[in-house]
Amino acid sequence: MGRFRDALAGDGLAAIAEVKRRSPSAGDLRPDADPAALAAAFERAGAGAVSILVDERFGGSPADLAAARSVSEVPLLAKGFFSERAELEELRGLGADAVLLLLRDLDDSQAHELMTAARELELDTLVEAHDAGELARATELGADPIGINARDLSTFAIDRRAQLELVESAPRDRVVVAESAIAARAHGAQAELAGADAVLVGSALMRAADPAAKLEELLARPLVKICGLTREEDVAAAAESGADLAGFILARETPRRAPAVLPVPDTMLSVAVHVGEVTDDGADLVQLYARENGHRARDGVLLRHGREVARVVDRAWQEADPEHLERAQAAEGRIVLAGGLSPENVREAIERVRPWAVDASSSLETEPGVKDHDRILAYVEAARC
Question: 223-384 is classed in which CATH architecture?
């Protein structure tokens, strides 16, 4: 495997930042896009790789690939509709590290021939699927990485739920890229927790006033969770402040018990917090604690469709925990840091622990279950700075 795949296979969520001037579904996005300037900016912003549209239907050309290569060291993906070895040879000569292969347009024999040619040219291939049949074909062909597109290229319809199901079912020994429909940190987090190693982001970046700043925003960690929400107006305040996760406590022993998992905007994920047992409540994620002595245990787990996707390092129920941050520092894997966090101490905690997400509740209240909107904003801003 080549350096394109390797750039996506590390810890955490990687991003392929895409340069495209227009989209057949959305029309002009950034007609004056400078591929060299954008590629350099995306590299500085932390892109694992940069995708360059080289097809005129997207306002691109092979010259854009050469321009990006002249200023950027990150792996470059040439994106278009390729069916012949000669096209791959040209793209390799212009600086491509990888090429996109669309199973929608290729039968297995054609795909195999192009994958073989790419290996001979020392090119990686991003083999794209958009349904279960194409994913099975990609797997059988030995594709790695595999791209899973939320957009049906025939109808341009977006189905993120179907995409996430395919990401979750993809083989874990392959690098998996979630493509399209990534416009908020929560979208990337959903793909990451479903099993994606990377996301490919195009339109959201091209529409942004500052594409590189938008990329940094999408990749920013930790995520911020506001827990103990019981009112719709507090959910709205959390969303407006830029929080990513909305927590609803459904355990019976707390005055912060929510009546239900309330609706959240598309920029957030809902988290149902349970103690001892889980009910089907329609949340995106579940935060589960064991029950000890009638209350929750100290630490918990974050679940997606019943599968553990993160560890929750919390404090003992209504007790001091002087080793709280030290335990979190020593924990391995994806960590949600909870317990005693506030606008006043969250930045120090982040710098010590480097968690995947931070979780606060009681410190943001005027009374149990009623949030102070100014403190929510202060908390999110402190976590982001």
Answer: Alpha-Beta Barrel (3.20)
